Amino acid sequence: MNKSLLLKxxxxxATLFCATAYTIAEEKPEIKFQNTILELVDVLSDNNxxxxxxxxxxxxxxxxxxxxxxxxxxxxxxxxxxxxxxTDEQKEQTKQLITTMLLxxxxxxxxxxxxxxxxxxxxxxxxxxxxxxxxxxAVKVRGSTVTLSYRLVNLKAAxxxxxxxxxxxVSMVSNxxxxxxxxxxxxxxxxxxxxxxxxxxxx
Amino acid sequence: MMKSLFVxxxxxxxxxxxxxxxxxxxxxxxxxxxxxxxxxxxGANVADPFEKVNRGIFAFNDFVYLKLxxxxxxxxxxxxxxxxxKGIGNFFxxxxxxxxxxxxxxxxxxxxxxxxxxxxxxxxxxxxxxxIDVSGTIPELETTEEDIGQALAxxxxxxxxxxxxxxxxxxxxxxxxxxxxxxxxxxxxxxWSPIEKWxxxxxxxxxxxxxxxxxxxxxxxxxxESAIDPYEAFKDGYLQxxxxxxxx
Lengths: 203, 248
Description:
The structure holds two protein chains of two kinds.
Chain A: H1 2-26, H2 29-44, H3 53-66, H4 72-79, H5 88-107, E1 117-120, E2 124-125, E3 132-141, E4 144-155, E5 159-167, E6 170-171, H6 172-185, H7 190-202
Antiparallel strand pairs in A: 1-3, 2-3, 3-4, 4-5, 5-6
Chain B: H1 2-21, H2 29-34, H3 51-79, H4 82-95, H5 97-106, H6 110-125, H7 148-154, E1 162-165, E2 169-172, H8 173-185, H9 198-225, H10 230-247
Antiparallel strand pairs in B: 1-2
């Protein structure tokens, strides 16, 4: 009787353990991010003619928000120390403009309606404290394959967030930071940067 | 006995769960945002003493790429079936084998050199003169692309300074010298090309350029569109790629 009870208890614990572990595994940051990217591709490659780019952009932002991801981290990272020199209004405008610019560049890949094939590799931690990880991927579109690696950080305030994207090994954040540093080092103001971004988007 | 087993099992299950769910956070978010970028993602800091001239050449190249090359590339891409375009690209990559071999040998990467040789032999024979990238399907033959510029870097020679070449785009003094040296082993370049007639070499180089153009123009436009300062964006992108190639 006791033996039977023990076996039942063990089976219950094992079931609970497996179910909980499965749920936690499902919520691994790299898995969650990977699924979000796949959904993002679906949104951007939606061929519905009634959807404007602005609609798709809004859908992407909402998708990210619903999965607890945001563009703020990557944008702040590109501005580095220059971020603190911006007023709250400038910060908000800069975030919106850079998000639009990045999504426009990204969505060019989907203009001909061809949905890219995406393959994700094994995520690896980038530091011993395991606060940063890299998720490699390969995107095949129009016969060419491009490698994309997403870097994620676990922030106190916002949890796991993407902080850099490496395109064929080229860091987008590093590339933008050089451009922003150059802008501010040449004594140009934040308002001039905002005007520059608006001008780029109007082109 | 049974109680002890029960406690142990519960403990193991609980401990297992704890270890799965323990996710570390950064110590301070502000420190993370203000920290310097990781070394692996920072391009080399290279002097750009002729920036004004370089920006002029960059603007000239921009005109050439978008007004002259792009229409040709677009027409070519529309006319040429994708598999043919890919096959031609594979062919030119295969005949540049001596450049990659020299780059490997000069860095004493003999394992990589033998992989390059194996790939060349397979692609030239089984791959029908290199048109089919058979070696690309064999993981054991995977290599990184080497050149003499990378060999110079591995010998401790620095970048020198950055500049932009008309038509060819960004480079550094070291990579320019490496590129000139590459041409000595490149079958399509002077002075030691096995192809005697300059007209044949010119046709080969033109076909290669036109075949590669659609993809290159596409990348060029994408980077330019999403850049605040395209000149800086290409300079940093070039230096990041070269830093990564040298590290590999």
